[in-house]
Design goal:
By secondary structure, the chain is of the alpha+beta class. The chain has three domains: about 60 residues, RNA-binding S4 domain (Structural Genomics Hypothetical 15.5 Kd Protein In mrcA-pckA Intergenic Region, Chain A, Roll), CATH 3.10.290; about 90 residues, 2-Layer Sandwich (Pseudouridine synthase), CATH 3.30.2350; about 140 residues, Pseudouridine synthase (2-Layer Sandwich), CATH 3.30.2350. The chain is built from six helices and 16 strands. The strands form three sheets. Strands 5, 6, 7, 8, 9, 10, 13, 14, 15 and 16 form a ten-stranded mixed beta sheet that branches. A hairpin with a 6-residue loop joins strand 15 and strand 16. The radius of gyration is 22 Å and the shape is elongated. The N and C termini lie far apart (about 55 Å).
């Protein structure tokens, strides 16, 4: 089944430029996606097949149609989904803590991917699951799923250009003295571990900005913004400061007051790749973190 990814009417600025140039430079279509359209879809001008090296005239209507490059192997499983936004290109889901995003060797089913595939199939949509921002199993909050390869590529570009803004809230142990700051410390795998990360000089660049929202009774409520998206980045950076997240026993936190790392993806903002409209979505703290905040902080 072919899916329409791009449709546009060429204007005077496009006239004289090739179909390929306009698709790549104006609409961000990758070379890989163009090749897919050539061999597993079609590109038309005014309803007729067109070669990508042909030049456009003002008023030409171009459409790019593709089929998925591979069958989705994730099995559908019905589950409740909290969808905060959805259109033809993307959906934003509020993920609860305890839910794995994608099947792994240890979690072959019951993941968010299984639930999203079931949701799409009920609607007659056949898509691959493409998570844009991965969240750890026990991290709650907003997660973007791209509904086609073009949208996924656009979000990848936004991440590289740092125009996809991801804001988290966390409750960390100890009193963070600075009201705000930046943690610029590379992260890599810890020695003899395939799971745990640590700050290390030969790691990948990792930058986290933080701002203290509240302090009290040996805890700090923080807002954090990521410039990079390393695995366990916030958890590792806060632990390296001597302030592990409450409940994060993998990185030195205690589970005395909460049974998982107190980390929540609370806000997303970005320019929609197709419409160009600025979108911002927020998600309030879940019950366990709200209870923890109420216990330690007084307004």
């Amino acid at each position: 089944m072919l899916e329409e990814l791009i449709r546009f009417t060429a204007d005077e600025a496009d006239a004289g430029h090739t179909v390929r140039d306009v698709l790549q430079k104006r609409y961000g279509v990758s070379r890989r996606l163009l090749i897919r359209a050539k061999f597993k879809g079609l590109i038309t001008r005014n309803g007729q097949l067109v070669f990508v090296n042909e030049k456009l005239q003002a008023g030409d209507e171009i459409a790019v149609m593709v089929s998925e490059d591979a069958e989705e192997t994730v099995a559908p499983e019905d589950m409740p989904l909290t969808i905060r936004y959805e259109d033809d290109d993307l959906m934003v889901i509020a993920k609860p803590s305890g839910l794995v995003v994608h099947p792994t060797g240890n979690h072959t089913g019951g993941t968010l991917a299984n639930g999203v595939i079931a949701y799409w199939q009920k609607r007659g949509e056949h898509r691959r699951f493409r998570a844009v921002n991965r969240l750890d199993k026990d991290t709650s909050g907003l997660l973007i799923v791209a509904k086609n390869q073009w949208a996924h590529e656009q979000f990848s570009r936004m991440q590289q250009e740092r125009t996809l803004h991801r804001i988290y809230q966390a409750i960390a142990e100890g009193v963070v003295e600075s009201d705000e700051g930046k943690i610029d410390a590379p992260i890599g795998l810890a020695e003899d571990s395939f799971i745990t990360r640590q700050v290390r000089h030969d790691g990948q660049t990792a930058v986290t900005h933080f701002r203290v929202l509240d302090r009290g009774n040996g805890m700090s409520h923080l807002e954090l913004k990521l410039d990079t998206g390393r695995t366990h980045q916030i958890r590792v950076h806060m632990s390296s400061m001597g302030h592990p997240l409450a409940g994060d026993d993998l990185y030195g936190g205690s589970r005395e007051y909460i049974g998982r790392q107190a980390l929540h993806a609370s806000r997303l903002s970005f320019i929609h790749p197709r419409s160009g409209i600025s979108l911002e979505l927020t998600e309030p703290l879940p019950a366990d973190m709200s209870h923890l905040a109420a216990t330690f902080f007084t307004k």
